[in-house]
């Protein structure tokens, strides 16, 4: 399948540089004419997918497309969950209690978020230059206002705030080359206008130019309780070795990225650092979870072949492109008390089917345990808390009363149009 890479925004398919720094901006459109002029001014700054260096990605909420004057007949063709917005679907997603929209960081989830700009670069100088270009473009149009900013970065270790290597396990996309040990997934699972794994295509808005080569983007700010996570492991381990093992069992990988299925007894940094090996594995020979528990975070998010025996579950229909970035100061190694700083992950997902990709994985695999025979359990790292079972011989171990280690601070459903669609939006005129 030939992808029109010159028309697809870089952020949809582009691998991030490593290391990287970045900035997310949210904008409100107070004057649709200024908003459309800004869109036109940003188009030359958007590197097409496959380009290197710093790049800018622009996406819109449903309210943002309304604010820019996209006609109702076009808006009606977008996915229902995108039209509703993430705050309206919070209860479905499990964003309740302290993770509920009433506790989200303003303006996330509110009516004022219209445009999202993401800028990532390999170094601070490149980022500053790219952000400056975007700022100069916006400053010419007073009818558009910046209402939120979040700086982000990759930790020097390449790991998340919980201490585990990030960015492993991205799906291979047909037309973008192959990944070791994985059959590429149809491009239509991620980009509108192409065949997907069902043989059909995701529904698109009209006219075709508005939808084709675009993708839906899930944006979530997740606060991580790193000190609570460390204390939980420390309190339940006899020594540092057991502490590391319990952490790996919860995640499904060792801190280096080495998967438990290939390194069940101890971390293997050389394996974790090898992109040709660290994602080339299956769970079919470990259905009991003696190497990697069925409820581990990585296995829940991508069960691979572990559900093949179920017959009715096609894991390939639920894959997603993930773009996680860290924000806030890292908690120093060994610190077990919370310092009050806001730190965590900006989670970004790109795909053509938000409901059966992000929402299915979040609700059926991360929040629930029915599919692994443990309906009372959820993901031990990003779930609602509760229990977590570690299979072992002769007697399994059950970790009880896990607190929630991740709290949702806000989120948005967005749409990242193609460059052609951005020109179409920029050229919109007022209805007579």
Automatic annotation (TrEMBL):
Gene Ontology CC annotations of this record: cytosol
Alphabetic keyword roster: Iron, Metal-binding, Oxidoreductase, Peroxidase
Listed Basic and acidic residues bias regions: 274-284
Molecular-function annotations in GO: heme binding; metal ion binding; peroxidase activity
Region entry Disordered, spans: 257-284
UniProt xrefs under InterPro entries: Dimeric_a/b-barrel, Dyp_peroxidase
Cofactor needs: heme b
NCBIfam families: Dyp_perox_fam
Similarity-based family: Belongs to the DyP-type peroxidase family.
Protein name: Dyp-type peroxidase family
Organism field: Paractinoplanes atraurantiacus
